[in-house]
TrEMBL record:
Known EC number: 4.1.1.20
Membrane-spanning residues: none
Keyword tags: Amino-acid biosynthesis, Decarboxylase, Lyase, Lysine biosynthesis, Pyridoxal phosphate
Stretch forming the signal peptide: none
Family annotation (CDD domains): PLPDE_III_DapDC (cd06828)
Protein name according to UniProt: Diaminopimelate decarboxylase
Residue positions, PTM N6-(pyridoxal phosphate)lysine: 60
One Pfam family matching this protein: Orn_DAP_Arg_deC
Keyword Amino-acid biosynthesis: yes
GO molecular function, one term: diaminopimelate decarboxylase activity
Residues engaged in binding substrate: 287, 324, 328, 356, 385
Domain Orn/DAP/Arg decarboxylase 2 C-terminal, residue spans: 296-383
Length: 427
């Protein structure tokens, strides 16, 4: 877990550094990321799956060059889904053959760059893309390793916008109606492609393992059909990411070793029943690795009690550094971290500084009634999909990511400046 403790004066320290010092040195808001915790989580996934499986960290959750180097050192692979993520991975020295390239609408230029770089796999998302990637590879005189992403038709229990295995959405090719089988037929015919496996990602922030089990069952079913029709046993399956983390104390996440055990068992069992060689399994956790490793440090600006309702606590960031509450109705907790307080708890809503009333960071939380401007508060579990989905709404500058480790802090993504904003404005 994150190395967070309270010192004798009541102030919180992270990785051995008091939050007050972090705020002074790096300003607020800031994402404070515990490198030790990140590496431990990455390693736990790697160890749980062992040498016969691959763990691809999903870069969309949070990507920077430092993170790419940590992943490389810890033996993880990387999933990217845009030219920008690919460029970041390559510039930090991730070997291309350990990169998987995703996306439902990769541009011709992105496809060419990925093939030229030598990415380990491209995950194909449509019939048109099967042809595009095959042609691009052929014209570069290469044979590209690919997987086909299928939708297995399970309803993952999560927010509609982050569920991806039901059929009525943009990702993947449905197993239903023989469409995935037809995609496999086409891919196997094209010289530019080496079809290495089938991919399924059922959604994100999921706690119930049953969706993964159904997905594994159906993907193995497709492998069997492929063997029966083509005499080919595809050597790999990827079961995507999506494991949930604890945002509040109500959430009870599975550990990597439980997930590894469940997935390996079901795939092995199903393959034995179908007399298939067990394929190499890969997974793509993003949130489960980086999510719990960071918190956002804010300074309280104004405190506005509304009689009979609640107290609005405005912090110096908001929906530009954490859109998840507004977008998914996500739940977060918050704590006063610059001191302790014996004051009675008050019902508070932590809001940002943006010009809209939906700019909420934490909907309902109890904070001490003596909370005052200048206090520091922390919102935990903001490592995933907060910096990576941050915006410049209202021309607010995106916060830095500060990595802490063994009593030392360093900026791995710096705070945006007004010059950064103005540099793009060339009118
Ligand atoms: N693999 C694929 C193909 C994916 O599309 C995703 C996430 C992952 C892996 C990683 O999923 P994770 O383990 O991080 O749940 N912005 C949303 C989450 C969108 C997830 C998109 N795809 C959020 O803030 O909850």
């Amino acid at each position: 877990a994150q190395t967070v403790t309270r010192g004798e004066d009541g102030a919180v320290t992270v990785g051995g550094i008091p939050v007050g010092r972090l705020a002074e040195e790096y300003g607020t808001p800031a994402y404070i990321l515990d490198e030790t915790d990140f590496r431990a989580r990455a390693r736990a996934w790697r160890t749980a799956f062992g040498p016969d499986a691959d763990v691809f960290y999903a870069g969309k959750a949070f990507l920077s060059r430092a993170v790419v180097r940590w992943l490389d050192e810890e033996g993880l692979n990387l999933d990217v889904c845009s030219g920008g993520e690919l460029a970041t991975a390559l510039s930090a020295g991730m070997p291309a053959d350990r990169i998987a390239f995703h996306g439902n609408n990769k541009s011709a230029e992105e496809i060419t760059r990925a093939i030229e770089a030598g990415v380990g796999r491209i995950v194909l998302d449509s019939f048109q893309e099967i042809v595009r990637v095959a042609h691009a590879a052929q014209s570069l005189g290469k044979r590209q390793r690919v997987q086909i992403r299928v939708t297995v038709g399970v309803e993952a229990h999560t927010h509609e916008f982050i569920a991806t295995a039901h059929e009525d959405q943009k990702f993947g090719i449905p197993l239903a109606g023989g469409q995935a089988a037809e995609a496999v037929r086409r891919a196997l015919q094209l010289d530019g492609l080496e079809l290495i496996g089938i991919h399924s990602h059922i959604g994100s922030q999921i706690f119930d393992m049953s969706g993964f089990e159904v997905a594994a069952h159906r993907v193995v079913g497709l492998l069997k059909d492929i063997r029966d029709e083509h005499g080919v046993e595809l050597p790999e399956i990827d079961l995507g990411g999506g494991l949930g983390i604890a945002y509040t104390s109500d959430d009870d996440p599975r550990e990597p070793h439980e997930i590894a055990k469940a997935l390996t068992e079901i795939v092995t069992r199903e393959c034995e029943a179908a007399r298939l060689r067990t394929p190499r399994i890969s997974v793509e956790p993003g949130r489960a690795i980086v999510g719990p490793t960071a918190f956002t440090l804010y300074e309280v600006g104004t405190v506005k009690p509304l009689d009979g309702l609640r107290t609005y606590v405005s912090v110096d960031g908001g929906m530009s550094d954490n859109i998840r509450t507004a977008l998914y109705d996500a739940e977060y907790s918050v704590a006063l971290v610059s001191r302790t307080s014996d004051a009675a708890p008050m019902l508070a809503r932590v809001v940002g500084k943006h010009c809209e009333s939906g700019d909420i960071v934490v909907k309902d939380a109890f904070l001490p009634a003596d909370l005052a401007p200048g206090d520091l508060v922390a919102v935990p579990a903001t490592g995933a999909y907060c910096r990576s989905m941050a915006s410049n709404y209202n021309h607010v500058l995106r916060p830095p990511v500060v990595a802490v480790r063994d009593g030392e802090a360093r900026v791995i993504v710096r705070r945006e400046t007004e010059e950064d904003l103005l540099r793009l404005d060339v009118g």
